[in-house]
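job 3f2a | input accepted
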Amino acid sequence: MSALPLLKPATYEDLFDLPPNRVGQIVHGVLYSHPRPASKHARSSSMLGVDLGASFDKGRSGPGGWWILDEPELHLDGDILVPDLAGWRRERMPVFPDAAWFDLAPDWVCEVLSPGTARFDRIEKMPLYRAAGVQHLWLIDPDLRTLEAYENHAGRWTLIAAHADQAQIRVPPFDAVAIDLGGLWA
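job 3f2a | predicted structure (186 res):
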């Protein structure tokens, strides 16, 4: 993860100048850039999206009621963030917007940690998600084969679950369906 030095606060247009193999985010006016995810990272994110999407977005063998998206662009209080996965309860966002980004904070965010982004995800992004009102945050580490789940209680992240390896898990807000954690690892 690298901060790109600018003499003025970064703008949305600065993201357009990044090469196509980079992901850009703006935090407190600073443009941060990192390479597209590596294979283990992409596999974990994709498999979780498939699992949650089937049960919670499509409602197949699950309750439905969510919009689940890969790498949505979020515009939250002047910051531009790109989580690996995010979900909105359809009761909060009844109509799927036709827009390039979302300015309604998701109900759930998942960050898949990699050596180059873990510090940024934890130190910079977690407080921004909390302040924006995200209620649930998952951190997945494909190298350690772990999932940490946090809940926003009165403006503070509280660790509510930690799982590893091959566990069958039920974790809020998606505890209505068991997830095979082992299926996330390459």
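job 3f2a | Residues 66 and 89 are 5 Å apart (CA to CA).
job 3f2a | closed
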